[in-house]
Amino acid sequence: YQGAENRNRWVIQLQGGGSCSTPQDCANRWCSKDTSFGMQGMSANASPTVGINGRGILARPRTDNPLAGFNHVFVRYCSSDQWSGTRGPVTVEVDDPAGKLGKVKLTLYFNGHDIIEAVLRTLRRDGVAPLSYDDGQSQSEMPDLDDATQVLFAGGSGGGAGVIHNLDHVGTLLRQSNTNCQGSSCALAYAGLVDSITGPYRWNLDYSTTTLCTAPELQVCDYEAHIRLQNEAGSTFLWGAINDDSCNPWHQAHDPQNEWRCGDKDHILRHHLTTPFFVRMGLQDSNLTSGYSDVHYTVPGQGLLDEALFGALVRQQLLELPSIAQTAEEKDAITRAPGAFGPACARHVTIDDNPSTYGVTLSDGNDDYTMFQLMGNWLKGTQPQVLVAPDLDQSSCP
What we know:
17 strands; 13 helices; 18% strand
């Protein structure tokens, strides 16, 4: 941290990097076959031993970054499970991605959820000595996370999915041992920042034209079949995923026939996150638009889901986010409606990029706001708290 006033303020950022949902998918990912990802997202052995050159929300020193002086924690991604897994080692048999050895065995570890818990124990000095860091002048001791007065839990892409899956759980763990929480009173200000992971809700899409439906080996032709496949034989099953603390218990008590929806992170975000959160999502996110278009979803009554429809749907979803305080399945537990910043930009994962974090603004008709300025309004309870680009013009994007 920098400055005594920031000693007990923290930002914890989860790194993104996609995921793999089947044994063969994971083998191909390890070998970087048909994907831009690789083994660095599946093993800590590839992580650098030095610190980070903080950018975006971790940039310092910057007068326009309200988090600049906070304790900065960047958690590297090595589990390929959207930070939700609890399984490993898992030994699977797959086709050699290189095509040389026929069938090969691969041992996988999906421990993203467990890694987050281990990071928190370390920062809380639970069974470990205090961490130290080099500030360029001397070695300094990290404060105890148990004394935190403010924590922002953030992530983009796969890291953003990790925030959705773990936001409420991390809040529970922090409050259990926080020295500022006594009985029903808790002075810890805790919130989430979700970046670049909220595409069009699949429950609104037509699957009949998708590769999921037309592939003979899948024949997944509707939303329920898609999520059930994930739960029973896909990513949720493979990872041993813990998707949210309250979704499954709520459905078991109130809507058991739809408990399968808890395998969908968008359902969790829309109905079961009770911790305050802010969403940053580009209307033309290059990674998500291609991911959706490659599957060939159709929007009922409007045609094939292309970039224009992607942007229109995401825009409407962001504008509707504040309504979840009245419409969510757990609305009675939601104390603050979400905020949102939705520029037309195409960059995927923006919170680790300076131009996207500080150089992109949206207007309310009177003033221009960066993401941080808008999020500041949201945290203080002043308006505006939600701004979304009116069209898909990217002329102001970096």
